[in-house]
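Researcher: Let's run the pair from yesterday's discussion. Sequence first, then tokens, for each.
Model: Starting with the first of the pair.
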Amino acid sequence: MSEHKGPSRRMLLGAMAAGGAAMTTGMARAAGDPAITELQPWMRSLGDGVDAHPYGMPSPFEAHVKRRNVEWLTADPVSSVNFTPIHELDGIITPNGLCFERHHSGIARVDPSLHRLMINGLVDREIVFTMDDLKRFPRYNRIHFLECAANSGMEWRGAQLNGCQFTHGMIHNVMYTGVMLRDVLAAAGVKPTGTWLLAEGADAAAMTRSIPMEKALDDCMIAFKMNGEALRPEQGYPVRLVVPGWEGNMWVKWLRRIEIGDQPWQHREETSKYTDLLPDGRARRFTYEMDAKSVITNPSPQAPLSHGKGPTVLTGIAWSGRGTIPRVDVTLDGGRNWHQARMDGPSLEKSMHRFYFDFDWDGRPLLLQSRAHDSTGYVQPTKDALRAIRGPDSIYHNNGIQTWHVDERGEAENVEVG
């Protein structure tokens, strides 16, 4: 196993020479390029004025960058999921319009003036809040990832979906603005016997999840904005629960009621669903935390290498529900040799991290993998290591190492290696 400790002077000079050669080739191509020598249409006339698009939209040349679903995955798109195009993004913040959706009864269209949040159960005083009431509590901003527990779930039995948007795209990472759940609960006065709470949504499914009081009083939020603007309807407008580092099904959208109790409620979403099936037929319950995970987003099946041999930038994302990601390793040969990637951008608790690995591709096939290390010392396992413990019949919490095969043409495919 070899470890990449950083560039030497010889490596830097080699990279500069390779980059210079690439630029020289590019300049040679540009000599007769009509994109350089001729005026383009947008250079010949005035563009739209400042009021043409009161809410800004992406360039039409980026129209392919969008959420996508898998039609055969569910019987009906009303209770279904679509996927974030993580292969088209960089940095760590997901644009609001690209955050994946998961609904159990479609998107609730809630009038904020008629929306209420009730706190009841084992409390000193039952309270009903309007949206204006909630916004009078101290306000906080936190950047966190939200990952569906079923993210990568279709891959338990082997490579299946050909694109990281579909294998790993049930995740997004945004800045939430809202109030701390503990402050709202303090206004109601939780009784000493109140050790659990039930969060309920206002959608037609009446989504409910039990949450331990320790978590509720730690870092949970009631959010009404993401990335600076109001929540989108598909993300729970006007208000949702934020449960950092824990499975997305617990982040109840269109939050309308919180009941305090002395035990979990054992509702559908924590019994028949969102439990982890083991080989002997038993199921692990209350596996809330999302384990450390990573994926290479470029190159990948939806983002092939199109530039040919030479300087190449490999990039991806990593995250952990237990802390930060101080290190990611990558391999170009299916795990024979590992190299330490370069981490770049903010390193925040229970948030995405961006990594890069710059190398000179010689045109030979690649077997790409990434392996995340989180701040607790946990190391992302292989899929075989997970299956050895949990078998092949699970759905949730698949954080195994992903492999992409890149051929001589730069095309990538979802594969597994032993």
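Model: Moving on to the second of the pair.
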Amino acid sequence: MEPRDDTGAEREAGDAAPRSSTPPSGPSRETTSAPAEAERAAAPEPAAEPAPAAEGPAVAAAADSPDTTRRVDTAEAARGDAAQPRHPGFDPRVGAGPTGRVAGPPAVPATGERAPVAGRFTTPGRGAGAPAAGPGTYDLSSAQLLRPSKRPPQTGWRRALFVGTGGLVNPGESTSDAARRELIARVNQPLHGCYKIAMLSLKGGVGKTTMTTTLGSTFASLRGDRVIAVDANPDRGTLSQKIPLETTATVRHLLRDANRVRRYSDVRAYTSQGPSRLEILASEQDPAVSEAFSEVDYRRTVTLLEHFYNVVLTDCGTGLMHSAMKGVLDVADSLLIVSSASIDGARSASATLDWLDAHGYRDLVSRSVAVINYVRRSSGNVDLDRVADHFAARCRAVVRMPFDPHLEEGAEIELEKLSSRTRSALLELAATVADDFGRAGSRVRRPVIPR
């Protein structure tokens, strides 16, 4: 019996069946003959495909299986370098799908991030790798986020139409409404510290006390800080009669108890407050007692009040040589020179400016505001334009105050009872004074000379 050629049979079996990592079943190597073993040893080995450097356990696949025969390590698979399985009709080099249609490579953002899908509720973003945006790109203020709309009107037929249609028809604010809004913004300018205003006039009956109350009430009603008016008139001042009286305490009582004043509520016990939130510190009603109110007393009073109030108005008397007048002028930030719409009133106001220039207060004159007050219905034949030009050449500004029947009564003053023209003039006066708030405390104070 001839020996069996196992080598040829083994080759035929290898061509018919795929290779497997499992050893084929059959006769063991010990049962093969010596010649077959020698012939197989002499045959050259087939060239093996080089395997990549393995960083982990390798995965072997069948030689002719649909999957790749390449050895793949886990690190290579994580990087995406591993060969993909060859599905029927799929070529990884071209990207053809099962239908044979060629699809291009997927679009990848330049930054390596997945681009958001734009839809009904999705807005594509710029991404972290986008160029730096401008300073206003990320502004989330109301002016940037809210759609522009007209301001609702405040007066006139525009307001009536706006209210009558329930806000559906908005014609916008008028020119006068816009001007009023700008004036209110000027009145509400930031104020650091305490701003002190002195009301001066050499002539009585020009409405100086009335101007102190109305200007202080305008500030108090529009600004959120505290405003107080001090009566420094030695001749029985009437400032406390312009608002409802809440206490009989005077400036003399406040100075007497100054050591016990620690907070705002302590000062509030000595003042009266009107409907506009303006507070008034009254003077002594007895002229003999009020005459003792000296320069030192006034300085002590202002030093105490400036810790609790932002605006302090001082209603001065008609005498510039009064003992407290030097203290008033030394601590004041600005002056209000009040003149009536008459020749003698204008002359007295001009004489006040002359006296201030002659006594070293030229810087205070340049920061003063002149007020031409119509205490009567008509000024007669006086050319008030020339009067205004005279004061405009010497003062910072000139404001005309129209005649008002409510102020002519001489009773308690309520801003709601004033005419619209008077309220507009007061608003303009308050805005003009507030334009100097930025220089509060900038004056060079004179040293106090002890007596």
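Researcher: Give me one sentence on the second I can quote.
Model: The beta strands are 195-200, 227-232, 272-273, 279-281, 311-316, 334-340, 369-373, 397-401.
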